[in-house]
Design goal:
The chain is mainly α and about 60 residues long. It is about 45% helix and about 0% strand. The longest helix has 30 residues, at about 1-30. The radius of gyration is 24 Å and the shape is elongated. The relative contact order is 0.06.
């Protein structure tokens, strides 16, 4: 009897795993816009300034 319960538990775990992978794939497809490039197609340039495009505040922020 115990082996039957173990098998049922394992089958349930595999089904949950498949469902989770399917949801993850669906979410990945829905989150991407047609204009947005795929992560594999984007090349990183190490010579770029990582702070480029970040503006300094117009006035200093007081520290309390």
């Amino acid at each position: 009897m115990a082996t039957f319960l173990k098998r049922q538990k394992e089958m349930k775990r595999l089904e949950k795993q498949r469902a989770k992978a399917e949801r993850r794939a669906q979410k990945k497809l829905m989150g991407r816009t047609p204009d947005e490039p795929l992560a594999e197609n984007v090349s990183s340039n190490d010579t770029e300034d990582p702070t480029a495009g970040i503006a300094a505040p117009s006035e200093p922020v007081p520290i309390n």
